[in-house]
Amino acid sequence: QEQLVESGGGLAQPGGSLRLSCAASRFTLDDYAITWLRQAPGKERERVSCISRQDGGTDYADAVKGRFTITRDSAKNMVYLQMNNLKPEDTAVYYCATDYGYYCSKTRQQTLWGQGTEVTVSS
Question: In angstroms, rounded to a whole number, what is the distance separating the alpha carbons of residues 20 and 92?
Fold first, then answer.
């Protein structure tokens, strides 16, 4: 069974950094576009960033642009989300997911999800 597993969440101070990791079992992350999403308490799930398969193209939500970076490590079968200059409003559960597409899409539904990793930004 294909699975995605996130890790790297935790407590960070405002202005601090965290790196989230997305690992896969029975699934090659390089084969598809991978998306990071987040859900804050009491709020709707929000798309954060995506990296495409074909050309490694990336996109970011306006709220994180310039602070977050999504990358792949093909050798390790991992996708990362480097989060810098964290703000309290970044507090959320972060998920990696895929819709099995090759390019990032803001409309296709994600069909394979990890269990999430919690990020708390607080002083």
Answer: 12
Long-range contacts of 48-56 (CB under 8 A, 24+ apart): 48/81, 48/94, 49/81, 50/104, 51/79, 51/104, 52/102, 52/103, 52/104, 53/101, 53/102, 53/103, 54/102, 54/103
Q: What is the pLDDT of residue 54?
A: 67
Quickly state the pLDDT bin for 2 (edges 50, 70, 90): very high
- The β-bridge relationship of strands 58-60 and 78-83 is unpaired
Look at residue 98 and tell me whether its pLDDT is greater than 80.
Answer: yes
- How many Å apart are CA 92 and CA 78, to the nearest integer? 21
